[in-house]
Amino acid sequence: MPDATFLDSTELVLNMGPQHPSTHGVLRVILKLDGEKVLGTDCVIGYLHRGVEKIAENRTYAQFNPYVDRMDYVAAISNGLGYCLAVEKLLNVEAPPRAQAVRVILTELNRIASHLLWLGTHALDIGAITPVFYCLREREEALKIFEKYCGARLTTHAFRIGGLLYETYDGFEKDVRDFCTMFLPKVDEYEELLTNNRIWVARLKDVGILSAEECKEYGVTGPVLRAAGVKWDLRKAQPYSGYEKYDFDIPTRQNGDTYDRYVVRMQEMRQSVRIMEQAVEGIPEGPIMGKVGKVIKPPVGEAYVSIEAPKGELGYYVVSDGATQPYRCRVRPPSFVNLQALDRMIRGGLVADVVAVIGTLDIVLGEIDR
Amino acid sequence: MADEQKPEGSQAAPPPAGEAAAPPAKPAAAAPKPAPPKPAAAARPAPPKPPATMAATPWESDLAHEIKERFGDRIVETSTYLGQNFIVVKPDTAIPAIEYLKLEADFDYLVDITAVDWPKRAERFDVVYIIYSFARNERVRIKTYIADGYKPETAVSVHLTANWLEREVFDMFGIEFDGHPDMRRILLPEEWQGYPLRKDYGILQQDDRWVRENLNIESGQ
Predict the structure, then answer these.
(1) How far is A54 from A189, CA to CA, in rounded Å?
(2) How many A/B residue pairs have CB atoms within 8 Å?
(3) Which of A1, A85, A168, A321 has its CA 20 to 30 A from that of A157?
(4) What's the CATH code of the domain at B161?
């Protein structure tokens, strides 16, 4: 923080949030301003802290499963997948192939739903009203598939430790295929609205730059890292749930600014469609539940399992002492780690860009505060 | 409803020290081990008891040898469990080891820092660092056992991301990191008393005084 402001004017401290629409939840950012220029920020978080990790220690492995949906509630299925994979690792079991294929389809569908909500609200923050209606329209179709599959739209509790509880419903494949064919032209439609839009480009280009080196220093993952040119995606680097079987690309960009992060996420949605199209073609027949006892009691040990959630690396570090409840269940939330880089991204920028940069980080406070 | 069954003797006690709930099914089979808290499987033919400690095997690799050579007896063990490698080091060696791995072995991404509370152990806390190397596509855990009150060195000087992660460990466990630039609570209010993820902090426990003074209610429950 510099000692003096420009022309020795008074440094202005501006409070943003926690009830500010563009902080996407209950994030409070204390901005230190020199006129229009941001000298520094301080994030105040924890307003949504529910002690999820403490709850985990007081519930059985199966009972804790629905709680993880309440962390990143716009991508609940990814949360559930990560948790189930972590406990399966401790139990040393694997979900059967059929369950894995259905998991991949639903998780990718959830990635699209999460990116759509991000796109709509991000554009709304910047001042474009139209995209949010379009995005929510298509997101609705994804949520309908979740609802038909497991009865819930948001906090789905779709997966179980060891596989799936529900068989797919009649017409599941058709619904997914229909979604895929319907969705790709819609992405073109969003791009038509935004990609070359002069206001959109002017507001996003060269704003909130985070280089690849800085990303690594801050542990930032997900689309933010890929927009900085690092071709790294856990689905490719350390495949889980059968992702190695599908053919897809990792979209990257070079500049690491807000516009590049937008482009990367748009391309990721297209790649998700590609994965879903492949997965839905050959869902293997067979059981949907692996060999998991009625009482889940992993042997003494520990495991760290992470997945590529829509926002970055989502990890679960689970410690078992041989009891029916986790001894310790640490969640490594991507949003929490990514938010830490906010200060680096907007220091020296303009106050109007703060909103754009918070939007581009795609944070969910339920996951940050846990 | 395959996995929705309640466990036997569904006890609500937070730490799994609930042996008192059910009498041991086969006293003869009960080995004289004090530590492992096993909720005794009721009147069924007792399944083979899980080992009381993690069944980790030694981790043999170039990296493991390299780090042992570099730090000698400061390395307590290099092991692998379920295909995941971890290194246990003496408390004062955690940061030098992480720095060494960053500079010499490309472990340039600090994934996470967390802790585990083992109240019955002399070195009460595990501090766990998870590091990853993009170049090698490899993840390693660095673990160290520290006593209550010991102040481990901060990792901020090596990885900037440690800042918030260590603040959260401090917030939840009360482990202060020496040399940390901003050792404040991060999720809980700053005046809050107690460290919730310690095992002696009950699930319904709260800072009553803080709740009364700040929320103007008697109890948050």
Answers:
(1) 44
(2) 144
(3) A321
(4) 3.30.460.80
